[in-house]
Amino acid sequence: MDLLYLQQFKIALNCPAVKEPPVITSQPEPITAFASDDITLTCEASGKPTPTFRWVKDGKELDPSNNPDLSVSPGSGTFKVISEDNPINHYSGNYTCYASNELGTSVSNQVHVRTESPPTQQKEKKVKIKAEEGESVILQCNPPESIDPPNIHWMDKRLRHIELSERVTQGRDGNLYFSHVVTADSRNDYTCNAQYLKARTILSKEAITLTVSPSNSVARSRRPQMMRPSGSHSSYHVLRGQSLALECIVQGLPTPTIQWARKDGELTASRTSTENHNRLLSFGEVSESDAGQYQCTANNPQGTVIHTYSVTVEGGQKLDGMCMSSVWIAGVNSELYAPGETVELDCKADGIPRPQLTWSINGVPLSEIDKDSRLSLEAGTLVLKDVKFGDTAVYQCKAQNKHGSILINTYVYVIELPPQILTVDGKTYGVMEGQKAELECKSFGSPRPEVVTHENVSWQPRQNVVTLATGGSLQISNVSHGDGGLYTCYLPESNVSISAELKVLNQTVIVSAPLDLRVQRGTAVVFTCIAKVDPELDHQLLWRRSGQKLIHSANDKKYTFEDPDLTVADVQDVDEGVYTCQIITRLDMAEASGSITIVDRPDPPSQLQIFNPMDRSVTLSWTPGDDHNSPVLEFVVEFEETEVETDGWEEIMRVSGDTHRTQVSLKPFLSYRFRVIAINDVGKSDPSAPSNPHSTPAAVPDHNPLGVRSVSVDPDTLVITWEEIDRRNFNGPNFQYKVLWRQVVGSGPSWQYNFTTAPPYEVPDVGTFTAFDIKVQAVNELGSAPDPEPTIGYSGEDAPKDAPMVVGANVLNSTAIEVTWAAIDKTTVRGHLLGYKVIILVGKGRRHVEERMVVQTGPNEEKKVVGGLRPYSHYGVSVTVYNAKGEGPPSDPLPIQTPEGVPSPPVFLDLKSHSEREMMLHWGPPTHPNGVLIGYQLRYQQTTDSENNLMREENIDDPTITHRTLTNLDPHSQYRFTLAGRTGVGVGMPIIKEGFTMLDGVPAKNISLLAGETSVNLTWVSQYRHMNVDFHIQYRNKNGDWKQTDKLNLAQSFYQLHDLEPGSVYKLDFIFSNKSFWKTEVRTHGTGMEAVSANFATEGWFIALVSAVVLLLLILLILCFIKRSKGGKYSVKDKEEGQVDSEARPMKDDTFGEYRSDNDEKRTASQPSLCDDSKLCSEDTHLGDYGNSHSAKTEVFMDESLASQYSAVKDGAEVQERSPLNPASATPTNHGLPSSVAILD
């Protein structure tokens, strides 16, 4: 029980007089100080009475208050060095603070104060280094030594940092290492700057000059060698909790690549990280698990070097959870004891090497205290029996080994107090399911009171789950909903009790966690975090990136928070990291993490080089580029020929992504360049820089062409061809094909040959279809390919010259025959026998051939069944043989006749019913009788299922009959009729049709009328099976007599009433069986005319008068036109303008277009115009009223309509409106009297 327990008791009893032992609240810290630094040692403590302080330096008492050089803070043990007279090293040493009051003395940790004068720059000589390109170089820094290790910065004279890379590296010793130098490294201002942070000092070393001279040997690569550390093995001893860095700086050309590994385990990213271009392996806080062997492997195309690091971890002191290399302290618990109790102070320490434990009381070691039989020490545990009030003190446990010491204070307070419960009554505890619940029941008393706890509502204790902790708290592990309820805690001695309620809530669970996303730059990503939260709890969703809380900003659109999503826009390199969503409630928190990894296609490989060149292979090596977080899956090796024009780069092979060297097979007599492309999940890299050209020596051809064969077409000629060899397989200069042939006769004559550069090769005068051994061999200037195996080829074919013999035919049935023949003599085929053709000629012999049918067979067949023939027909049969060149002559036709068969179906079958019990059948004879037609077979029956539905059959023996009437049929049934022709062989294929007999006739329905000016169109729909119905139509107009149409039939479906008067109303009456079944009225289109006008216009005298007037007008107009054409002179231009005026321009109502002379209205006296004296040419004639005066052509109709138009001329617009032929309501005006313009045209 700690002093907080006592403080709570003081508050509960309102007893501030209770004394407290001293507790050091602020420990002194180790100090490293320089001449200008302040030195302050802190020591603060609490307690009642107020503690007093004293210091011990290097084992001797130090009273800061009596030292004028020191200033002590009032009421504390803290002091500060205020004098500047004494040298700073006067204050170096080990310091310990003691805080004391009536209850004991607490001791602080021992701290070490180190002092030093600021480092100074020593005079140096200028350093000049000369090196050849490709050599390794080290530029030494050698900063002044100090207790404050400096930060080293290599810079130029303009204070710009020297650019570091895999080739140029800065070591932890401050030196600058060049794996190999290049001419660009030459400069005279390499300056090492040492920054001492604690001393607040920067020292610049003398500038170093590096001169790199070019070297012809730079192309000769060097294998890797260790620069720092040297050798193949090094050892490191480190304390637990400290940091560790393993260096691996190597030289080599090209620059070696570094790989780290752990030999005795797995190298995890959580424990280590790489820096300085992978040249440094760092450990944050070393633990015992980091002890082991590590390995650095450096590679370049010339070889590999390996360095092994042995790491040993030794522990600082760790005393009951208080670690020397840590910042947290949790020592032995301080307790209150009643007189007579036994005190056991257990102090455990750990470290490498194992620390030694010592005990002190109030800062005095046990060895210096008088022996007490009640006090004993057992394996680090201090036991004090039968304690008394005088045993109240501060006890110290100290652990020490060679690495240092550590000390903790614990308090023993002997006191008598009445029992009390300090925890508030009626408290409610909320805890999540599955967690641990702790119901407090803090009691106070000396001796310690006994605490009893139980649940009021159906609580059953569970083994190993519910425990009563020290101090009276009830602990329930792995809480379930059944543990909820009311609990009571009471002290039996004082009958004091409290109650508490336990509420068990559902644990917060993330059901959809953010994902690990691999994206390219510039894209937007969305993280989703969905959680299941207890309904009684409010929750908050927070997002963090790499531990830092993300906050929404209205000005920054980078992050968009829309629960449950987080959107990261325009992802860039700075957005990489771990994104964590936190669902926070007042009782628990759930979190899950995803990540953003920027991926991209890899950088191109570099340093592509050719090694181990051989006649037909080389070894390629390269250095992979940055894979941009997406491992390289494979490398594509491409080549290009350098001495000929090609289509560009071609793929030659692929290797896995972990391969950086491969052997490439080559072909002779070619010049190559190579390049390498890396491929990852994102895409392909750009190609590497091409290698230097590499040429292979010439050699004899490796193989001969394939596909050697004869493709002879013409007789007496042998044509040999083959598949050309690719140019890359020529293997040498002057490549040719050696073509060899010989006739296959026994062992054959000697080989004949010739050379060519390309297929095919033609050999003339070799006979028709003669067999030859042929072969083609590849040769070049260095020699020939292996001798090829010959193959058989033939010279060109010719058409067969003979026909098959002994041709016969056997009739199988009326449509099939079997044709046989003797095998042909193959010597007469003059080519490869492909087969036979059976030729069927329709007709007798070779004359009157109407049709030809050809059936092909295989070369080994000597008979063939030919089907599909017509019965009762004459055929001629011939057989011919054919090869690739064509057919030979046919054999003489063999006449055959197929026997009689059954006829084909009749051409058609029509059904007509004129009554309800009759059906007339009409048909057409079969197209193919297939014999002598002797008649027909007619069968019919009702289609309904019934017992009386019998099939009726009737034979018609006269083949010339094509119709038949059936009587006594059922008017209420549908019939199926089957009709087939007959020959002496039997009945042929039938034609089938179904039909109904007619029902009683009924009038038409759905009658539609469409009226015109002088006609009315009538349509109707007849009812099913009511076709033979006759009817009449009677009609008349308002004042006319009844008229009647001829007999109409429903089958017509259409009729037109014509010669009707326009604009009249007609009554229509439809008559069937002397009875009217429908009446209606209809009005014709157009405007009706007065009876007097109609009668007047039809009089003969009026027609004659009108005709005479029209004739006179025509004569006058013709004379006017002739006169006009011979009139005054005028220019062509004015004539054209006049034509435009009369034909193109619109005319006014009171104007008539005419030709005009040069002067307006000017005419010659000798040629007066006819129009001068004629009203026809005057403006008052108003001929424009008749219609469109722009018309180019007008037809003149000499009928009764002319009278009305003539009257329109005299009566003007008023009569024209009354006319039924007014253009607005009748025909266009250009169908009436022509205008003068039209006549002139």
UniProtKB/TrEMBL annotation:
Which cell locations does it reside in? Cell membrane; Cell projection, Growth cone
Composition-biased stretches (Basic and acidic residues): 1132-1164
Residues in domain Ig-like?
22-108, 118-209, 224-312, 340-413, 419-499, 507-597
Instruction: Give the record's keywords alphabetically.
Output: Cell adhesion, Cell membrane, Cell projection, Disulfide bond, Glycoprotein, Immunoglobulin domain, Membrane, Repeat, Signal, Transmembrane, Transmembrane helix
CDD domains referenced in this protein's UniProt entry, alphabetically: FN3 (cd00063), Ig (cd00096)
What's an example GO cellular component term for this entry?
growth cone
The record's section on SMART domains has: FN3 (SM00060), IG (SM00409), IGc2 (SM00408)
Q: Which SUPFAM superfamilies match?
A: Fibronectin type III, Immunoglobulin
Biased composition annotated in UniProt, kind: Polar residues: 1222-1233
Where is the region Disordered?
214-234, 684-708, 1132-1171, 1208-1241
Please list the GO biological process terms of this entry: cell-cell adhesion
Q: Which PANTHER family match?
A: L1 CELL ADHESION MOLECULE, PROTEIN SIDEKICK
- Name it: Neural cell adhesion molecule L1
Tell me what organism the protein belongs to.
Answer: Denticeps clupeoides
The gene coding this protein: l1cama
